[in-house]
Every structure is written in structure tokens, then in C-alpha cells.
Amino acid sequence: MSSLLNSTPLEEKRSIGQPGLGVHQIQRIEKILSYATLIAVAAVFVLPLYWMLATALKTPEQTFALPPEWIPNPIQVQNFAEVFREVPFGRFIINTFILVALNVVGELFAVTLVAYGFARLRFPGRSFLFLVMLATLMIPYHVTLVPRFILFSKLGWINTYLPLFVPAFCGSSFLIFLVRQYMMSIPFDLDEAAYIDGATWFDVFWRIILPLSRPALVLVVVFTFVGVWNDFLQPLIYLNDPQLFTVSLGLSFFQGARETNWNLLMAGSLLATIPPLILFFIAQRQLIGGISIEGLKG
Predict the structure, then answer these.
(1) Are residues 110 and 51 in the same domain?
(2) Are residues 207 and 88 both part of a single domain?
(3) How many domains does the chain have?
(4) Are 278 and 210 in a shared domain?
(5) How does residue 287 score in pLDDT terms, banded at 50, 70 and 90?
(6) Which alpha helices (H) appear in the chain, and where do they start and end?
(7) Is the dihedral of CA 9, 12, 17, 22 positive or negative?
(8) Quick check: bond before 74 cis, omega within 30?
């Protein structure tokens, strides 16, 4: 036993002296491989954005040059101003912001009320109605496309903004489900304490539940903004007047009867991506946080 104990330090010294990779070296290699993988994946996602930016700064001849020119020379910054001269792009942006504002107001109004009813109120048939609402998520949008068009046509809403924002005041099933699950995690003790103090259900909804549901409401705004801003199918179906076109539909002007100016199309597409990016960077702080922490702060 003593011989084995005495031989252990010698064996450790021999093993240390043998050539090979240590623990720190292995960890360093793993870290390098992880960063290399992340950089490669990021490059795959950034490459289309860079190509769009590079094409937006090229001349029409440089756009189709072979081999491709990755760096525009000379840089055509005036392409962005040319977009507004070729088509009423400023009008398209204003129209889209109007639709975004109306849809955001409608979704916040309907989603918060319906989600609050499913999450905090007790009434007969609540679970059944909630399951019926969830079942509507399985119906593809294209199945209801023709009946909706016939309905809006009978109402005389074609070539107006009404079909594009009135349904928002009925709420989105997915957003209702999202906010309802968020509200369910708020402690019910807050409601009971408010009711003991004489508060009504609307007081609880307005003063307690809504402030604590701020991260979920920000998510509703982000989803609605991006969905309306990028929507192409519905404006294409319901709008005929070019003065009412949105950004996504207005970009199709560059693919009209004459030869397509791909550099101007990319410049317009790049301008169209700026508002969603700004919204994301503004709202990303609000998307992080838990309801329990917010409740303890209150």
C-alpha cells in the first residue's frame, strides 16, 4: 500500500511531462470552434442584407456585372432619392403607417379585453369558448380568403382601408392566446386584494393587469407592426387605387411594364426594412422580464 502511494507522485509527474493537450487548451479550442461556427452562421444571414445594400448603391450596369462586384464603385447614393422620384414612395410609407396605427389600436383593444376575460374572469362556458377560439388557429387564412372578399364586397369596402384594419378590432386568436397565458401567470392574490379594497373588474384590468402585462403587450405591438408592414396579399386584393398602396405593394411598381431597375428596387426594399428594425431595437428591452418580478416591484 505504501509503495503505491509513493509511486503516485512519480506517475503524475510522468503524465504531466507527456506531450498532449491540457484542459485549458481543449477549452480554448472549443471556444474558438464555437465562435467560428457563430460567425459562419451570422455571415449566412447577413450576406443577403449586404447584397441588398450593395445593389442599392450600384448603377444598373454594375447590378448584372460578371463576375459580381461586391463593393460598388462608384457608390450611387442618389438611388435612394431616385426611389421617391420614380414612385410616390413617401405616400406609400404614410399609408402603411396609418394602417399599422389602426391595426395596433384594434389589436390592443380587442386582445387585452378578450385575454383578460379568459384569464381572470369566471363565467359558464369559458373553457369551451377558449377551445373554439384555439380551433380557429387551425383554419388556413386562404380558406377564408374568398368568403371574406365576398363579404367586404357586399359591404362596399373594396378599395378602402376598412378590410385591412376592421378585423383587427375582433382580435387575433394567436395574440389572444399569447396574452391570456401571460395574464394567467399573474398571482390572483392581487385581484382579491383589489376587490377587497372595493375595486371593480375594470379597475383590476386597467390598474393591475395591464401594467403587469406590458411585456406581452409590447410583443402584440411588434407582431402587429411587422405583420401589417410586410403584408402584401391583402392590400393586393382589396386596394385598386395606387394612392392607397402600402410599401410592400408599392415596391411592385419597380417591376412594371418597363425593364426592372433592380438597384432602385433594392434601395426601396432597404428603406422598407428600416422601421421594423428601429422598432425591434426600441422594444427589445421590454420583451425581457418576468411577470413575477414586475408583480413584486408593484
Answers:
(1) no
(2) yes
(3) 2
(4) yes
(5) low
(6) 2-17, 23-56, 60-63, 78-86, 89-120, 126-135, 145-154, 162-165, 173-184, 189-196, 201-204, 210-212, 214-230, 233-238, 247-250, 262-283, 291-297
(7) negative
(8) yes
* Domain of residue 40, residue span: 2-56
Among candidate residues 174, 157, 175, the one with its CA nearest the CA of residue 165? 157
Residues 160 and 122 in one domain: yes
Q: What's this model's pTM, rounded to 2 decimal places?
A: 0.81
Average pLDDT, the chain: 85
Residue 72 lies in a domain: no
More confident site: 296 or 190: 190
70 occurs within a structural domain: no
How many other β-carbons are positioned within 10 Å of the β-carbon of residue 148? 16
Packing angle of the helix pair 89-120, 173-184 (nearest 10 deg): 50
Rg of the Cα atoms in the chain: 29
